[in-house]
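Annex B. Sample input.
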Amino acid sequence: MLTVLFITFFVLLLINIPIAFALGIAAAMTLAFDSTLPLNSIVTRAFVGVDSFTLLAIPFFIIAGELMNACGITERIVAFSRTLVGHIRGGLAHVTIVSNMFFSGISGSATADASALGSMMIPAMKKNGFDADYAVAVNSSASAMGPIIPPSIMMVIYGSIANVSIAQLFLGGFLPGLMVALGLMLMAYFIARKRNYPAPPRSELPPILPAFRDALWALAMPVIILGGIFSGVFTATEAGVIAVAYATIVGTFVYRILTFRLIGKLLVDAAVTTAAAMFLIAMATSFAWLLAWAGFGSAALGILGQISTNPTIAVLLILVFILILGLFIEGIPVLIIFTPVLLPVIQGLGIDPVYFGVVLVMAVVIGSVTPPVGILTYICCSIAGLTISQAFRGLLPFCAVLIAVLIAVAVFPGLVMTIPNLVGH
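Annex B, continued. Sample output.
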């Protein structure tokens, strides 16, 4: 069964069938060759995969991101970030990284960050004398913070599948997300010195206070959302509704940009994005169910047990496997497919599912940066007018930073669990 499933899936990927359809067709082909299970099992499992109250958070966070982006939030966050770090050598690179860190607390999506901020920062960096491959590398790697820093759509998906506290997952992502930001800034500074990139003196930058005041409504959104979740006022799913209401009020009455016509268009765009995401989740759930039925989890546990019974070594081996998969498969399908089959493995080794969820999301999102299938790099290359091969050289040091932070977090679980344990959620 596993042979038919994997061969069919990878053949479909090689002929450029969209991944959601490749997952569904591979599952159907497998059941057609194996009469043990009825073919309509795919439909049943697909429905079960999306029939979750927790997953309602996804469309609401998508809508909130669309609304906030339409309000000019991107420009305000970039302007504020420029006052903070624009004077450091390679200034626009640091502005990009800090802006992504702030924007991650609003969108929860790496692709949204790459599209919104990349379309602004990549042309600006090129215009100010930065090499195009450097601009792509900074923007694509910085957008990887989107699913790590809360709120995170990927963590919502993992929490729904693994039945663990999404609030704890959000808390666990804080320190790793900050480590990624710091690591990327250090690498950006090192390369900027090596390539002699300039930075404007602080005297040429606008003052911090007016920029902060202008961005305050945007920066308050993640504080309200996360504060409400962590204080127990509302759940992560209900937080999505609060985010939409907040974005609508700010856009309509504070920034006075949103109109009924614009809101209608944004709702349609969000509906299309949500439908694509839910279809992908449905097909990946069917695929994952077949993997579990065929005993993939038990086989993986047996292999890991033969190599090492040390939980840290086991986690590192799993992450290597996920990083290799990320070279060929998009992030969310990897997360949905392998979470249910890896959960029994980590439980058998006594690994905390919250800690594992954070490092798994980190590994999956790194796969969205690394070529040849890194969707974040594709988005940024498209904006910069580069091919993946032209951007590859500049991307390597930043990918190394992402992987180094991942290894540090995997080896030292306290980097994930300290804040959740302190808060007690």
